[in-house]
Task: inverse folding
């Protein structure tokens, strides 16, 4: 069922879904590998789809950690709302990560420790990508991380405009193989977005 839903959404929205199949658990493991779950108070996820990465976040998080999901696709949003009904400290919004600052104000979240992203920056409009990455870089706390995956290196240089440190690792046990980009600011820089 999850596969068919994902495939249907890819066919109808290829630019915003970005993949034919959901991510594998191997990619999910690599995406959460650099998260310090003992210290994280606020984690955001952009484009969770059917919740492959969300499952890992919920599995490892401190129960007091607040997780906020932003899913622009209405069908995926419905799946997520049903799947995580009744989960404490988990907020799900049907909206764009472009408005992340507004949503954070609504939730009373002062900063972000980690942001996981399944957004296909290679196919998103450049202006949308720019807005999302700029706001994200300003919202991250000191030593926070923005972790995303992409299928090509085509957007690596673009992402490096917003983050001074970008570590890349490959996960071949995914269809297609994916590169995980773990992005952070220099240690003496800190998120300064006014909330």
Result:
């Amino acid at each position: 069922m999850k596969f068919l839903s994902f495939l249907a959404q890819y066919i109808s929205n290829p630019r915003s879904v970005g993949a034919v199949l959901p991510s594998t658990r191997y990619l999910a493991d690599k995406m959460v590998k650099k998260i310090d779950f003992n210290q994280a108070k606020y984690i955001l996820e952009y484009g969770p789809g059917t919740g492959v990465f969300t499952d890992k976040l919920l599995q490892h998080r401190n129960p007091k950690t607040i997780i906020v999901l932003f899913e622009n696709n209405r069908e995926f949003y419905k799946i997520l709302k049903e799947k995580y009904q009744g989960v404490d400290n988990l907020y799900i919004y049907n909206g764009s990560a472009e408005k992340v600052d507004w949503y954070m104000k609504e939730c009373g979240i002062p900063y972000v420790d980690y942001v996981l992203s399944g957004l296909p920056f290679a196919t998103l409009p450049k202006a949308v990508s720019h807005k999302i990455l700029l706001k994200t870089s300003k919202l991250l706390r000191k030593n926070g991380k923005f972790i995303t995956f992409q299928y090509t290196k085509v957007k690596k240089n673009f992402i490096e405009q917003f983050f001074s440190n970008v570590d890349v690792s490959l996960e071949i046990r995914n269809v297609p193989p994916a590169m995980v980009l773990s992005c952070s600011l220099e240690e003496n820089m800190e998120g300064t977005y006014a909330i």
